[in-house]
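Supplementary Methods, section 5.1.

A reviewer requested that the exact input to the structure prediction be made available. We therefore reproduce it here, unchanged from the version used in the analyses.
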Amino acid sequence: MNKCLRLILSIAVLFPLLTGCWDRHELNELGIMLGLGVDKDGDKVKVSAQVVVPNEVSSKSGGGNGTPVTQYQASADTLFEAIQKLTESSPRRIFMSHVRVLIFGEEYARKDGIYDVVEALMREPTARPDYYVMVARNTTASKILDVLTPLDNIPAEKLFNSLDLSYKTWSPTTTVTGDQLMDYLLTPGIQPVITGVEVIGNQDKSGNKENIATIKSPSSLHTTGLSLFKKDKLIGWLTEDESKGYNYIRDNVTSTVNHLPCRKDGNVTFKALRTTTKRKAKIVGGQPVINIKLKNVSSIGAVECGIKIGSMKTIRELEKDSEEYLVELMQNSVNSVRRKYHTDIFGFGQEVYHADPKLFKKMEKDWDKYFENLDVRYEANVQIKRVGTLDDSFKNELKE
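The structure derived from this sequence is encoded token-by-token as follows.
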């Protein structure tokens, strides 16, 4: 009897927990959104959702004559009202768990700021924060999501993969995920920086299948420059060299290619194999000093002048020239941001906080003013480990 009673009580306790998939949805009821665009529409938020068309990407159906994605748009007072309002035109419920890119239109980022959208997405349990954030340069997010792309036939996937590859192999670009962006917005002593994307070419054909029907697409998507923010509003763009300097300082460079002029005519191209940067603040005489130490291991990629690469003297000269170039690159980036934007995107304030929290608390409200006159010291160490499969250049031995 006791055993039966215990069994009944156990079942009574466990039964309410076995509710099954109470919130399940069939795949044919969902519209999988991979790209989310946010633009300004008067006083409202305009949402553009790039949704996969299953029949066009299915290997079993072989695809049809349509495009692999479609775009739905809606405007409302808040982000999630606009997303919910997409059901006025979409026959399926928009599913947000697979968003790959979040794109802000430049006008929206400048005038309204991005915090409300980032906070809303971070709060939403169905949206994973591993998407990449971008800013549409000189255009709207909806136009970016309207461009069909070759190779990756889903444009949002192309943007994600292209940026993911670019930041690993090309120093002017970087990646920012949703959770990283929230950290930048909330952490004192650093301001957000986000990679830009723009449409190159004929935008009239960007959404047609003609755009992927030729060898050279009439319209294409390009990541371009870094946008910088003050608090949550876009205030400007870095040039390519300024973006390189920023990424070297922030230790964002994995691999890249640079060139330097030879001491004679021509150029030498370097491939960066490994790059690490350490930033540290010290308090000297009651004032913060930032020390930046960069270590770089490179190989020689190309030689366009008749120098003797096999000579250790030449290698030492190239290392010294490369060190001077990297220091100048970082220095010019910091000085340009100080002069034009007066805001700390490099995280120097964070380093001061780590060195002396009490001192930074006193400076925090006026940190941008302290940043303009901050003592920053640079050091670069370059080692050339490889010269390729050739030693000396044979340019001087070419036949007449």
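The chain has a mean pLDDT of 87. These observations are discussed further in the main text.
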